[in-house]
Specification:
This protein has helices at residues 20-28, 35-52, 59-73, 79-86, 99-108, 121-130, 153-162, 177-185, 214-229; strands at 7-11, 112-117, 139-142, 170-174, 189-193, 209-211. By secondary structure, the protein is α/β, with parallel strands linked by helices. Helix 2 crosses helix 3, helix 3 (59-73) crosses helix 4 (79-86) and helix 5 packs parallel to helix 9. The chain is globular. The relative contact order is 0.16. Mean pLDDT is 93; it is low at 233-241. It is an enzyme of class 3 (hydrolase).
Amino acid sequence: MSQKKPVLVFDVIETIFSLEALSGAFKVEGLPSHTKDVFFGQLLRDAFATSTTGTYVPFVEMARGTLEVLLTNLGVPSPEAVAGRILPVFGQLEAHPDVHEALALARSRGMGVLFFTNGSTANTQALVERNGLTDHVDHIFSIESCRQWKPKESAYRAAVERVGSEPGHCAMIAAHAWDTAGAMNAGMLAGWVRRQDRRFHPAMTKPTCTSDSLVELVDSLSDRLSSINGTGPKTSSGPAD
């Protein structure tokens, strides 16, 4: 049986790139910074609900629709114009402080690095280049290619198959409980990094490991993937959970 290269699969928005820039964009429009959290939560709600009907709506269209509805509900004049000023901020996000070290560690351990996003390929590629991550990322896979939003099981399978791997040789790292649960449902290992949420959702499938640090998750999961792949683990500093 051919050996599959172990792959670390990273969620993109909030896991790799912080949404704090959106907080500033809402404040410029006279709205509380926490409007960002309401918006992103409602965006995911609308996307997941639409996905369950068997209808695919791309990220940009879904984000614009959700934002225009939210702004209207908040009594903001000219919501279409305001949305037009806020949405481009998705192309200006900054990487979290631990990202460069984590991705460099993944590459040093011989892991493939795949960015897997509900957003667009073009925006993700632009963020990767803007943040100087090009040399650390092997592949970018957007749900545009499979027309299924995460956490649909088929989306995870399509992503890892596109890079020549399979779920049993991959681990997902994400800041969202629904994302790690979706990956595990597809047969992958999963690590949850604490970003916005301080507690893992107790109703979701428990991840393989959790940590405040992306670096610690890469350390733990790369060991586990090396063992599965038969290359043997390095001398580890210990699991992250």
